[in-house]
Amino acid sequence: MSAVVSLRDVHKSFGAVEVLKGVTFDVGPGEVTAVIGASGSGKSTALRCVNALETINSGEITVCGHKIHDPALDRRALRRDVGIVFQSYNLFPHLTVEQNIMLAPRSVKKLSKSDARALAHEVLEKVGLADKAESYPEQLSGGQAQRVAIARSLAMKPKLMLFDEVTSALDPQLTGEVLRVMEDLARGGMSMVLVTHEMAFARRVANKVVFMHKGKVQEEGPGAMLENPQSQELRAFLSNGL
Amino acid sequence: MSYTFDFSFLWTYWPQFLAGAWLTLQLSAISTVFGCILGTLCAIGRADGPRWLKWVIASYVEIIRNTPFLIQIFLIYFGFAMAGLKVSANFAAVAALVINIGAYTCEIVRAGLQSIHRSQVEAATCLGLSQVQTYWHVIVRPAIERVYPALTSQYVLLMLASSITSQISAEELTAIANRIQSETFRALETYIVAGVIYILLSFIVRAAFFLFGQLIFPRRRKLGTTI
Is the interface score ipTM higher than 0.95? Predict the structure, then answer.
C-alpha cells in the first residue's frame, strides 16, 4: 500500500542555518511513527513541513496524495485530511470546549449547528471529556486542554494526525491521560506521526521509530530498536535519560 | 464672602436640562456605533493592510491624536460650509465625534489584534479555516473582548467630550447649561446641575457597555474575568 506520508531528501533552512539536511522516511496507512531526537535535531521542523507550516527548500513531501513541495498546493484541502496537535494546545480562549470543536466543522464543512454539536459530543466522548463541553479552556487542566485539542482535530475526521511534543508541558500524571487517548486512536487504526520525548510510549505504541540527529535521520526501525540502538548517537541520546 | 445657593430656577428649566441630556446621549450613541465601525476597520487596515493604507491610517490617527478636539470640530464644521454643504450643527458634531473617536478606537483595537498570539492563527489555519474566517473568529472577536474595558473608558470620555460640540451650537447639555446660566445668572448652580447630570450619563454609558458586554461575550458573563 502507498504511504500516507513520504519525505524524500527534504532540505530546510532558516536563514543560514540548515535545519533539515536531506530527511527521508515514510509512514504507512494505519501506522504510528514516533520521531525522536534531541532538541534542535529538526524533528519538529520536519513535522511542520509535513503540514506545510514551513516551506521546504528542496526535496519532496507527499501527504495523503497532496504534493507539499508543489507551489500550487491547495493548503485548505491538505488540512481537511491532516490534523495537528501542538505542545501549547492552542485552544481558542474565548470559546467553550464545545465551541472550540464546533468552529471548524461549522465554518469549513458547513455542518448545521445541531450536527456540529452532536459531532463535538462524539469526539469529547472519545477523549473522556463529555462533561466539559460547557467549560472554557482556562478552566481545564493541561491534560484536559490537550485532550480537547485532540478532540478538536478529530472532529474534522482527518486521515492523518500529527502530534508535536504534545505532552512536553505536562506532569507525568497528565501525560498519562493524554497518551492513553493517543494509544486508543492508534488502536483504532489512525495514521499518526508524533514528535515525542516519551520513549516508553514510542517503544510500546509506535510501529516505527525515526531517530533524528543534526537534521538527518540517523536510524529508523521498529520500537524494539530503542532497546538495541545501532548508532553511537542513538545510544548516547538514550543514555542521557530522556 | 457668603453665597446663597438657589436652585429654584430648576422648576422652570428642568425640561431643557432633560432635552440637553437626551441630545448628549443621542450624539454619543450614534458616534459610538459609527466610531466603533470606523475604528475597527482602521485597526484591521493598519495591522494587516497594504503599505499605502497603513500609511494613510497612521497619518489620520496621529493627526487626530495630536490636535485639540475643539480645533477638529471647527475644521469639520467650517469645512462643510466651505465645501458648500449645508449640514446641521448636530450632523457636524457627530461627524467630528466619529472622526475623533475612530482614531482612538483604532489604536485600542490594534493593541488587541497584536495581542493575539500567532499560534492561535496557526491552529485555526491547520483546522482548515479560511483567512477571513480565521480573522473574524480567532483574531477580531477575542481581540475586542480583550480590549473591551479600555474601549468602555474611551467611550465614556467621548460622551464627556461631546460637551465641546456646544461650541458649534449643537444644543446638547453644555450648550443648554450655557444658555440657562446666561438667562438666570445662576452660573454655579447651573453647572453643578450639569455636572451631576454628566455623572448620571457616565453611569448610563458604563451600564450600557457592561450589559452589551455581557450579551456579546458569554465567557465574561460566565467567568467574570477578561481573557
Answer: no
